[in-house]
Amino acid sequence: MNYTYMATVLPGLEEVLVDEIKIKLPDVQRLTTTRGKVFFESPLPWEFHLQLRTVDNLYQLIGRFFVGSHKRHLPQLEKQIAAFDLSFVKSIGRPEDGYVVNASRKGKQTYSRFEAAEAAMQGIAKRYPGWVRGTAQNHALEFRLDLDGEEAVFSLRLTNSTFRFRGSNRFFSQAALRPTIAHALVWCSSPEDRDVFVDPCCGSGTILYERLAYPFVQMRGGDLSDDAIQSAKANLKASSHSVVQRWDARQLPLDSGSVDKFVSNLPFGRQIGSRAQLGNLYGQLVQEMARVLKPGGRAILLVEDGSSLVRAADRCSIHCCELMQLSLKGLRPTIYQLNK
């Protein structure tokens, strides 16, 4: 029996997740995407899909239905929710320990997302009067209601709040990437077991941590910040094949032509200063990466100022292409690939 799942992902990374699903889960069918979401059918138990590291959260789809955009249509929404058989959720959590509905909406509805969530809660209560309504802070089950125009998608959250952060015992430095984004960068580098892999601006080691999920020959990272290096070492303590050290990414202590893959989240403009300063930094970083990369090597870089990176690559005679633009905390950073 196939189940339909909805995986949420940072907007811009949908196709990265689709590729990851196709490689890791070849039995998956009917892959479709919308902004920030990937839907798919799978015969596998839901826990098996937790290996998808670009996923922020995983949901089991309960149903799709049409609902009007006016407040008078809220009883229709409540009735539709009450019609769903939700008995399967007891395998995920105890509804007697509390359930909540979180809603989002996009369109011209005359009701708020909170009113939509309340209508859904009332629908569940009508069908299952013995279940207990929870609170945002205290619940065992979380349902999700997404409204887009007159289409509604109702689902059950399967992952907890720490899933996308790889648990609650990680150390993150200031401006650290979310692990799921770091994994997307790693995935774009096409990890291979023969890789010599380097993050020249590693921060707290999030990208390096994600690269640990795949075989490699050697992995190294560095940063100018002593605090970042300590966090990175703490996060990578289980790895005996990675080296993290304090260094200046503009003068790497690495031999020329010794690295297969660079993957890094380069400093953004507000971390450096003026655009001219950022362009100068990118120029120095790209020049050093060009020196250290093997012929045919590549770099996957997340940057805020793509034009500065393109100019730097041109000056170093490195081929540079844009892969995808993301939507991240009000910014529009872009992933680029550089090939030597």
Automatic annotation (TrEMBL):
Top-rank taxon: Bacteria
Gene3D superfamilies for this protein: 3.30.2130.30, Vaccinia Virus protein VP39 (3.40.50.150)
A molecular function (GO) term: tRNA (guanine) methyltransferase activity
Biological process per Gene Ontology, one example term: tRNA methylation
Cited CDD domains: AdoMet_MTases, THUMP_AdoMetMT
Keywords: Methyltransferase, Transferase
Domain Ribosomal RNA large subunit methyltransferase K/L-like methyltransferase: 166-332
Pfam families associated with the record: UPF0020
Stated name of the protein: 23S rRNA G2445 N2-methylase RlmL
Native species: Desmospora activa DSM 45169
